[in-house]
Amino acid sequence: MMRFQFPPENPADAGPGHRSRLYERFVDLLPVVTYASLLWCISVFLLIYRATNEGGEVSVLMVKLGATAKYELAHGQWWGMIASAFIHVKLWHLAFNMYWLVKLGTLMERGLGSLKTAAFFVVAAFVSTTYQLEIGGYGIGFSGVVYAMAGFMWGAWPRYTGFLEGFTYRTLRFFLIWQGICFLLSMGNIIPVGNTAHISGMLFGFLLGMWAHKGTKLGWHWFTASIAMTGGAVTIVLKYLLG
């Protein structure tokens, strides 16, 4: 039976479970991948901001930086399915995503290491951006990766209890409530939100998190589902590249 647990509010309540341990703090290290991603996002934002103030061709610049709609994808800009995640136009959008990037990204990097975190960022960006483009329309921003990190920690915390240092039930509840608010903002045409990127990102992260929690032998179906989801994104991209 496939079961998962909500994270506790208090890390001390983690408790022993299947392939888990009592709450254990992750080692401290310099989260170079998280800070590099932060710097990339801020640099791109400043380039767009300067072009906007100077009356430059902002849309052309954004495409060069990786903003990818179906037209650009059909003309070979497949790498934009990753680069789009690092583009922000509004300051509030950047601030929101960068806050959670630092809060969750540093924690993930301390728990998994820099190489695995880098791979996670790249694949989560690709998956969430691709499904957003295909199902929810053109979108930019790091929120798909942010939701993927939240999903991963949701699934993996019983084994990687150090995530509870910054990801508790209150954090998960915030993400779920905020997603509900995002639906309302979109339905009311108040703010365009990449809801598909949020949902696909969280689902992808959760599947990988459950695999990390259960292990390869007992969690093979979770891993298979994450591979299938990634394969679906690859298929979408190939459809435009070859079509």
Notes on the structure:
With 243 residues, the protein is an all-alpha fold. It has one domain (27-242): Up-down Bundle (Rhomboid-like fold), CATH 1.20.1540. The chain has ten helices and no strands. Helix 5 runs parallel beside helix 7 (143-156), helix 6 crosses helix 9 and helix 6 (114-136) packs across helix 10. The protein is globular, with a radius of gyration of 18 Å. The termini are far apart. The mean pLDDT is 93.
List keywords for this structure.
243 residues, 67% helix, globular
Q: Briefly, what is this?
A:
With 243 residues, the protein is an all-alpha fold. The chain has helices at residues 32-53, 58-65, 70-74, 80-83, 91-112, 114-136, 143-156, 169-187, 195-218, 220-242.
Topology:
Blueprint lengths: L31 H22 L4 H8 L4 H5 L5 H4 L7 H22 L1 H23 L6 H14 L12 H19 L7 H24 L1 H23 L1
User: In sequence order, what are the helices and strands, one letter per element?
Assistant: HHHHHHHHHH
Average residue pLDDT: 93
Radius of gyration: 18 Å
Work out the strand percent: under 5%
What's the helical proportion of residues?
55-70%
Q: How does CATH name the architecture?
A: Up-down Bundle
Q: How many domains make up the 3D coordinates? A: 1
Which blocks of ≥5 consecutive residues have pLDDT under 50?
A: none
In the CATH hierarchy, what is the class?
A: Mainly Alpha
> In CATH, what is the homologous superfamily?
Rhomboid-like
